[in-house]
Specification:
- It contains 4 helices and 7 strands; from the N terminus they run H-E-E-H-E-E-H-E-H-E-E.
- By secondary structure, it is an alpha+beta fold.
- The chain folds into 2 domains: 107 residues, Protein of unknown function (DUF541), domain 1 (Translation Initiation Factor IF3); 104 residues, Protein of unknown function (DUF541), domain 2 (Alpha-Beta Plaits), CATH 3.30.70.2970.
- The chain is elongated, with a radius of gyration of 31 Å.
- The longest helix is centred in the C-terminal third of the chain and has 30 residues.
């Protein structure tokens, strides 16, 4: 009987200790970080289209334009093997006259994409190359972080956020007259308010095929990246 009471007392003590530990005074601090990072990669996007009287004419016309754009890509110093063809479409071309739709051949279109290492010189070289193209086309650039720079930036953001949380916690503890003890918990990844990799925050432009120097000195905006971490300290 005495042994049974001893066991019950032991588990009761553990329960009370756990409750006391759970209800210990604590301080929750959110650390934040922000970095402005210049993109180190660019994506050249090109699109071409051709209207033909029939499918074959439309396809042949589009193929000729695509080959012309490929030549300009190579002339700009980019690798043909890196070109990706996307968004091919072939549709009937309709013309509206006096409110009446009339078939007028076929409309073929497709897009080309190629990634390159960003520098002002590389962008200027691409623009100067395409300024000499005789084909009509649409062009725009997207700028982003390479995988290497993205991981490096992510690591720096986390370090800065933790450092910020600790800095704030120390100030709060001093002003409140308490001492920081052990860290109870760290929350990361569920309180981020701004996406880590804001692809929407890119800069696009259209090339002017009438002038070679229209876009000299063009640079993308820095990406504004943010991160957060929530750390809970025990205090006494």
């Amino acid at each position: 009987m005495r042994k049974k009471l001893t066991v019950i007392f032991f588990f009761t003590s553990l329960f009370l200790f756990a409750q006391e530990k759970k209800n210990a005074a604590s301080i929750n601090v959110k650390g934040t970080s922000n970095l402005k990072v210049q993109p180190d990669e660019g994506m050249l996007n090109l699109s071409a289209s051709f209207i033909g009287l029939d499918v074959n004419q439309a396809m042949q016309g589009l193929d000729k334009k695509t080959k012309e754009l490929t030549k300009q890509i190579i002339a700009a110093g980019l690798n043909e093997k890196d070109i990706k063809t996307t968004n091919f479409q072939l549709n009937k071309h309709s013309v509206y006259r006096r409110g009446v739709s009339k078939d007028s051949g076929f409309f073929a279109t497709q897009s080309l994409q190629i990634k390159f290492k960003y520098s002002k010189e590389n962008v200027a070289k691409i623009l100067n190359s395409f300024a000499q193209s005789k084909s009509d086309y649409n062009m725009n650039f997207n700028f982003m972080l390479s995988d290497t720079l993205k991981k490096q930036t992510e690591s720096n953001l986390i370090k800065l956020a933790v450092k910020d949380a600790r800095y704030k916690a120390n100030i709060l503890a001093v002003e409140a007259g308490v001492k920081l003890k052990n860290i109870k918990s760290i929350e990361y990844g569920i309180i981020i308010q701004v996406p880590y990799y804001p692809m929407a925050k890119t800069r696009s432009m259209m090339a002017d095929s009438n002038g070679e120097t229209a876009m000299e000195g063009f640079t993308p905006d820095d990406l504004d990246l943010n991160d957060e971490v929530l750390i809970v300290w025990e205090i006494e």
